[in-house]
Amino acid sequence: MASLIRHLVSNYNEVLENVKDPLVDTWPLMGSPGPMLCIVGTYLIFVLKAGPKMMEKRPAFQLNTVMILYNAFQVLFSIWLTSLALEVDIRQLFSSHGCNNVNHLPPSPQKKNLQSALSRGAWWYFFAKIIELLDTVFFVLRKKQNQVTFLHVYHHTVTAVFSWCYLKLLPGEQGVVVGFLNSMVHIIMYSYYFIAALGSKYRKYLWWKKYMTWIQLLQFGIMLFYLILTLALDCRMPKALTYFFVTNVVIFIYLFSDFYRKAYKTKTA
């Protein structure tokens, strides 16, 4: 019990020690959690209650042009986010952060530059998660409420809230790998939605729909392996952040596996 308490106190202190960067506070939506929580709260009220009620006696909105432009933007934006992650030498995430080294060195100028780059990239990643809330809004406006599932809403809500918390409270180098993998998957996912938005004559190019879930599960599997590796190597990264990542990755693996089973396995049974 004593070791558990020490462990919890250590992780709590990690959070306090990382609330240091005053520059982040000056960035849009980062001064306090209020604006972010208002956006997410409005999102939840609209997609779960107000939106369906508003659309109950209305015809579905035809948003073909909007969907084409939106998905094209998301593809390009995801490519750009991926390029930001590629600018970081992944070897730095191990060699410069004391993995398997109890003689931790004080922060170097290289680490400070890396952290600054991570913070800037993390803000754009957070911005992407806010923009992605429109996915569900479009479902509601197009009267596709069957696609507003627990998995969909939970995924969008958690990623938006946690992306803010990550940047504001506990930034860590683990975010590079997680953000890179997620942005790669989103290039594929929004490419699919872009093709689908072009119209029925392009449906013959969408035979790979069910494989998107495989790709998402593979993404989570790689994330889990990486996060466990940082713990096994005792890398000097915020362990509280790693534990939170691991918890959510496990939840996502369960939810996406359950979705795949219900959407595809049940149909073929």
Main beta sheet: none
Order of helices and strands, N to C? HHHHHHHHHHH
- Overall 3D form: globular
Number of helices: 11
Average pLDDT, rounded to a whole number, is 84
Radius of gyration: 20 Å
Spatial gap, N to C terminus: 48 Å
User: What is the SS-derived class?
Assistant: mainly alpha
Q: How many strand segments?
A: 0
Which percent range fits the helix content? over 70%
Protein model, in words:
With 269 residues, the chain is mainly α. It has a domain at 20-99 and 107-207. It has helices at residues 2-18, 22-25, 33-55, 64-86, 92-95, 109-131, 134-141, 150-168, 174-197, 209-232, 239-268. Helix 6 (109-131) runs antiparallel to helix 8. The longest helix is centred in the C-terminal third of the chain and has 30 residues, at 239-268. The chain starts with a helix and ends with a helix.
For this entry, give a set of tags.
single chain, 269 residues, mainly alpha, globular
Task: Describe the SSE topology.
Layout: H1 2-18, H2 22-25, H3 33-55, H4 64-86, H5 92-95, H6 109-131, H7 134-141, H8 150-168, H9 174-197, H10 209-232, H11 239-268
Q: Summarize this, please?
A:
The protein is mostly helical and 269 residues long. The protein is 74% helix and 0% strand. It has a domain of 181 residues.
